[in-house]
Amino acid sequence: MPIIAEGSLDFLSHSPEQTLRIGIRLGELIQPGDVICMAGDLGTGKTTIARGIARGWGSLDLVTSPTFVLINEYRRADAMRLYHFDAFRLSGSVEAIDIGLLELFEDRVSILVEWPERVAEVIPDERLWISLRWVDESRRGLHFDALGPRYERLLKDFRKVVFGG
Fold first, then answer.
1. Is residue 129 part of a domain?
2. pLDDT 10s digit of each residue in the chain, 165 long?
3. Is the residue at 41 inside a domain?
4. Is residue 10 helix, strand or coil?
5. What is the widest separation between alpha-carbon atoms in the chain?
6. How far is C-alpha 118 from the geometric centre of its chain's CA atoms?
7. Which of 58, 103, 109, 114 has the most CB atoms around it within 10 Å of its CB?
8. Handedness of CA 10, 14, 20, 24 (dihedral sign)
9. What does each C-alpha distance from 38 to 78, 142, 145 come to in angstroms?
10. Which DSSP category does 30 fall into?
11. CB-based burial, 57-82: b 16+ in 10 Å, e otherwise
């Protein structure tokens, strides 16, 4: 049963497949300019939920972790783009600026950020922040924080789609 509070949502995913489906539902609601941050230790499901978000958004491309390339770009049939950024290998915000992360935010493209805490100084104040935590071999805890009016609406719509209310 999800814990529901205004501006946040806390619940368990019972399998990687469920985490993927949660991502798909969220991805169906993504709009240009949205910033979705995914924080959590290695193996908590950040790439799994990102894969689901990209699929729900309509990605025509295979979704893989951008750990080594830092930024993946996914295409959709209508020529829209979704960027998937991984800050794991960065030493901080200066490196993120050097590789063009600020330009992506300024261009108002949709972007998924893994390891956002490593580059928090350059991430917009308004965003959806998803914290994932390991519960056991198959279950993960997910905590969503909506920061700003756009993301409060997004989270409200997401609740309706996933939990019916």
1. no
2. 455 567 899 999 999 999 999 999 999 999 999 999 999 998 888 989 999 999 999 998 777 666 656 788 898 888 889 999 888 888 778 888 888 888 888 887 899 999 999 999 999 999 999 999 999 988 999 999 999 999 999 999 999 998 886
3. yes
4. strand
5. 43
6. 15
7. 114
8. negative
9. 26, 10, 11
10. -
11. bbbeeebebbeeebebebeeeeebeb
Identify any residues that bridge with 113 across adjacent strands, giving them in sequence order. 37, 85
DSSP class of 66: -
Query: Which CATH number does the domain housing residue 17 bear?
Result: 3.40.50.300
Domains in the chain: how many in total? 1
Token readout for 34 is 């949205």
pLDDT of residue 69: 60
The domain containing residue 48 runs over which residues? 10-119+135-150
β-strands 140-147, 8-13 pairing: antiparallel
- Asked if residue 1 is part of any domain, the answer here is no
DSSP 79: S
Nearest to 143 by CA among 12, 6, 1: 12
Overall pTM > 0.85: yes
Q: Please state, in angstroms and rounded to a whole number, the distance separating the CA atoms of residues 44 and 131.
A: 9
Kindly state whether residue 2 falls inside one of the protein's structural domains.
no
